[in-house]
Amino acid sequence: MRDVELRSSNPIFAGIQGRFLGPGFRPYPSGQRLVETFTLTNAACGTVFCWFFAATLCCLTLELNFPAMSCASTELFSNVRPRLMAIGYRMLSSVQEAEDLVQDAWLRWHEETKSSRAQVLNAEAWLVTVTTRMAIDRLRAAKLRRATYAGAWFPEPLLEQAPTTPEQACENADNVSIAFLLLLDCLSPEARAAFLLREVFDAEYEQVAEAIGRSEASTRQIVHRAKKRLESARESTGLKPLPMPAAARLDLLRRLVQAISSGDLEGIKRLLAEESEMLGDFGDVRPSLSGPLLGAQRIAQLYYATHLRHGAMMRLEPAILNGEWSLLRYLDGALDSVQTFEFTDVQVSRVRIQRNPVKLARLKEKLLAF
């Protein structure tokens, strides 16, 4: 037996010693010496030093190739980012929170590729799983905050490119509309994630199970129960598939804009279903609705009153938000509120007003960029 002492004042080699020669070795900051003593047999000494220099060469090779690996991982993440944003927004109903979520997923992805020095076998599945699990945790916290929210709480409006086909328009309205996002609130965070991944993003049950940390059999039951819960919630809220084509909804909104802008009280009332209702998310903005406004007469009177109050200073413009036609209301040239609608076959049945300035901030930025 003999004592062999390995010394290194170079921090790179100190780190290599710590990485490849066991837990007894620890990397030290630059300028300090690494001194560790261990006992080896004569026969083992040559093997250890051959291993040490081979490991050194391997690690230096990885350092030289890492910039290329980093660029490749960044490009891969950029390709998956729209899907992650779509998951985040449908989970959290907030553009800002979804962007923060995806940013945190990017940081985890960056650390994963940097520390492992190897590509993840299925990068997209890894990113979807990480994003989904973080979204579940954040939704739990968000539900607690929203329980003390002043007044009605509505999702943040999402401005996207106009759909290119009627099929795409119908699909967007089905899975990203304000009404649908509110409907999803009846589900637990875990059930919401499972339902969205399976029914909206067409993920296989195996991937969904991995994302929510359940068995495949349990995941199938969660998705099945989520479907039944949503169907029951649809019936109780009166939310049914939209029978009116997108072009007809746009035409109805244009007629509503014309009636409001001209102060035509009876014309406004004719476009509203008799049992229609208006709800609002005002945040801390005053004045606000104290509760739902019920009936075509009362809603028409409110529209008429805003015309009398603001006159030419008010401008209403149709726009596609959350996959369906909505109205943007401008006062003195500044975006003041967003109105989204549900329809019967020929009339407006529900109006939701989003006037919380915090939730309109991102939308204002995007509208200025268009």
Number of domains: 3
- Note poorly predicted spans: 1-69
Encode the helix/strand succession as letters. Answer: EHEHHHHHHHHHHEEHEEEEH
**What is the CATH C level class of the largest domain, in words?**
Alpha Beta
Q: How many distinct beta strands?
A: 8
CATH topology of the largest domain: Nuclear Transport Factor 2, Chain: A
Rg? 29 Å
Mean pLDDT: 80
User: How many angstroms does the end-to-end distance come to?
Assistant: 77 Å
* Proper CATH architecture of the largest domain: Roll
Index terms:
3 domains, 6-stranded mixed β-sheet, 13 helices, Rna Polymerase Sigma Factor, Chain: A, disordered N terminus, 370 residues, Nuclear Transport Factor 2, Chain: A
Draw up the topology in text.
Elements: E1 2-8, H1 11-20, E2 34-40, H2 42-92, H3 95-116, H4 123-146, H5 166-176, H6 178-184, H7 189-200, H8 205-212, H9 216-237, H10 246-261, H11 265-270, E3 272-281, E4 293-294, H12 296-310, E5 314-321, E6 324-331, E7 334-343, E8 348-354, H13 357-369
Parallel strand pairs: 3-8
Antiparallel strand pairs: 1-2, 3-4, 5-6, 6-7, 7-8
